[in-house]
Structure formats: structure tokens, C-alpha cells
Amino acid sequence: MLYNAATAITMIFGVACMYVLLYLVGLLAALALIDPGYFSSQLQRPASFGSYLKLVWLASSVGIVAGALGSSLESEDAVRKATYGRRELERQRGRDRP
To answer: Where are the transmembrane segments (predicted)?
Structure first.
């Protein structure tokens, strides 16, 4: 039970850290690339820093969900090839043999 709890906490912490990193990179990109005048014209009101925060929150959240859905469509072999190196795949194939 302790091992499962530690694994779950580690996974939650890792996912949260990656989401925060994605959010911050997205925020920096939005601030650098989206002209405030253009953003204001699209919003039809003055663009504030909060508007950028909401835009990046939406984009990051949609990106996470799209990535999760897309990864669930991959076969187990494709995930193993993307995740493990050649040597690890050889070890796993050796274990699968009778």
C-alpha cells in the first residue's frame, strides 16, 4: 500500500510540475507573440494580463486533454518503442520468450 501511495504521489507531483512548466512556457510565448492590440480587437475589450492567463490556461488544458486522447490511440508496441531504448526492448523480448 505504501509503494502504491508513493507511486501515485510521485505521478501527481510530476504531472503537476509538467503542467506548470507548460503553462509558464505558454504564457511567455503568448506575451511575446500575441500583439496586445490584436488581442484586444479579438476580445472586443482591452486585453489585460488576466486575459493572457485565461488564454494560456485554455490552451494548456486543451493540449493536455488532446495529448491524453491521442496517446490512448497508440498500440502498446508503439508506446514501448517511443518510451524504451533499443537495449531495454531486447531485454523485454527475451523475458517474453518461453
So the answer is: 6-34, 55-73
